[in-house]
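Follow-up to my earlier ticket, as requested here are the two runs.
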Amino acid sequence: MSAPSLTPSTTDAPRRTLPRRAGPPPSRDRFTRSLRRNLTAHAFLIGALVCFAVFSWYPMVREFGLAFQKTESGHTRWVGLDNLTTVVNDPAFWQAWRNTALFTVLALVFGFAVPFVAALVINEFRHGQAYLRLLVYLPVMLPPVASVLLFKYLYDPGYGLLNEVLRFLHLPEQQWLQDADLSMLSVVIAATWMNMGGAALIYLAALQNIPGELYEAAELDGAGLFRKIWYVTIPQTRLILSLMLLMQIIATMQVFVEPFLLTGGAGPEGSTTTVVYLIYQYAFNFNNYGAAAALGLLLLVLLAGFSAAYARLSRADDE
């Protein structure tokens, strides 16, 4: 027989418990975990807020101050409504508003209808929609300067493609950008081609969400193509259409790039002078930042009025 072990068994030894460390309160621990988990999101949010504050909100606040100030010889003083009076008494003021209103109306006729029609056509294709979407959106991906150079070539009175077509058809040639009666229409056509891609894709997405049963029911009732568009497509996309209408008005009222690059800004006899181009003139050609800010403030108030009217009408329709 083996001798009994003299080493005490571990099971017989008394257990020693170590004291627990006091941890953080449960609420604080949950907050810490949540903060760590959302740290990346908070970092992106703070970055966006800083960008908006520096590049959007501060310029807007600064514009309000500049609209009632005037700087002369390095000294800034408050002048009240003098800047606004200077702007309104400028002969180019009312011409700029008329041209901007004309551009907005023409852009709504072309730039609002053409993308919607393009979306309707693309939606009818069962194959190759991806290529058609790329083809429609391609002008948006081009730099604006490249697109403008293309249209300057098309509009050239000597060797431009449009006049070549007119010569081939034995029709009179046109001074597209040099004629005061045609210059604004030429700018609108170029702007429509350059910017229609985004709106067309938005309309196409809205069209593809319309239930097919509605069109089938319309066909059973004997509705043709135009009746289906009027009684099915337009009511089902009314919200998108109204929103895009508001965005189109806001964008066209701020037009600057197309007339500036195509006609130099003013155009023949001032036919393409817009409000934003007049703001550019006051600020960078006349060094009158107070007048530029006052005119910008007027434009801001007008666009805010459009937005408020849209919000009110939308609320009334929902009710």
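Run two:
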Amino acid sequence: MSPPTPRLRRALLVLTTALAALLCALAPLPAAADGPADTDPADTARAAGDGPADWTARPAGGGADRDARPYVYLEGTPGTALQDRLAVTNSGRAPLTVRLRGDGRAGAWIGFAADTVTVPARTRAEVPLALTVPPDAVPGDASGEVVADDGDEEIRVPVRVRIGGPTLAALTVEDVEISGGTIRYALVNRGNAMLEPRLAVRADGMFGTLLERPERPLPLELAPGRRVERTEPWPDAPALDAVTVRLRVTAPGGARDEAEASATYLPVAPAVGGGLLVLGGLALLGSGAYRRRRTRRGDPEPPGAESADDRQPTTETRPLVKAGPLVKAGAES
């Protein structure tokens, strides 16, 4: 078979490249290792009162409700100074020295009566603290932490501040992606109020609904301006389908948003095998088209090719013609 023309070779190359790109786009990416993608330092911090066995730090209380508060909660308008107390209890047999500092947005507004406190053995000390709301603070909720550190371990006490004025609850769900059996997305608090989001998930394929999870609360508090990346497991994702996943998030105060993403699930091995079959078929079709076109054009046989006359012996003989004397026509004399 004669080699294809340059035009045919270019056409086959373009078709092969396009098919390879299609296979790469359709093949599902390997699922990433499972693990919490929404970890936040404030979520994993030690709760108020927890920590080393011989000392604790928590919001100070009084009377029968002593030490009952899980966090420091303050309310005020921009420009005001708010006061509270932190209780440090030393249950050990030696004096305890801790350093105090604020962390986070509201933590930066906190000042302590003493940044370093020494508590005698088996003694409880209460440290006054003052939180000054900046004059230009936006109305809504702000959060932070008080950190008590003894040099080896630390205890974080949450701080919540409600700033007076009109509030806005605004929540968005962004960057939705589907990767194997995992749905990835991000939540962003775009208002000025603390939010407790709720999530609903739905996935539709070519032949109907594949996944439908009703709205449920998520285990997090979203501070104003905070962005959290999360994952939603989908262990029974299809092996072969084209799906569209829709996420709907809500929060108290009227916050609501929706987002969606699409993906195609295609087994890798069948896709590669089918691609090779298609490529082989294209090559055969191209070669056949070339041979037919050369036949129609009457292209000469390439050098060295034997013709039908060369291959078949001939038996045809021609009769010999005996030449006679040449007679010249003319007038007799």
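The only thing I checked on run two: Confidence is low (pLDDT under 50) at residues 28-49, 305-317, 319-333. Let me know what else you need.
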